[in-house]
Amino acid sequence: MENVIKPTILMADDDPALLKSMQQLLESEFNVVACVSDGCALLEAAKLLVPDLIVTDISMPRFSGIRATRQLRISQPTARIIFLTVHDEPAFVAEAGRIGVLGYVVKQSADSDLIPAIREVLQ
What is the rounded distance in angstroms from the CA atom of residue 86 to the CA atom of residue 18? Predict the structure, then answer.
């Protein structure tokens, strides 16, 4: 059997149940290297692990996904980031684009949309 190296993913969300279900969804195709629950932990894990891709929520305690992404743009300008969020308002989507987020998936469609979005961003 061929030993394929899976792309590494760092996930950030303050909902432990969602993190667990998304990890299960992704693990057949990707290596989820860490799951964290706030933006500060996201910044620390991203610096330590340098994942191929980061999937983060927008609304999290201590440091929002937007704020963490702005910091990542400075510390790791090549980081590839997808927002996975309940926010489908155009203002959030526009802000995500402005700060360099490469994908935007609404949580209610994550089961069908997250893997294709990850594949596209990793291409």
Answer: 12
**Rg of the chain on CA atoms, in Å:** 13
- Cα separation, 91 vs 120, in Å, equals 23
CA distance 100 to 24: 27
84 neighbors 26 (Cβ within 8 angstroms) = no
Report which of 117, 26, 12 is spatially closest to residue 63, judged by C-alpha positions.
Answer: 12
Structure confidence by residue, pLDDT tens digits, 19-35: 999 999 999 999 999 99
Cβ(37)–Cβ(84) under 8 Å?
Answer: no
> What pLDDT, in 10s, does the model give residues 50-68?
999 999 999 998 889 999 9
Q: Is the pTM of this model over 0.70?
A: yes
Query: What's the distance, Cα to Cα, between the start and end of the chain in Å?
Result: 24
Angle at 110 between CA 106 and CA 92, to 5 degrees: 15
- List CB contacts of 106: < 8 A, sequence separation 6 or more: 85, 86, 87, 88, 113
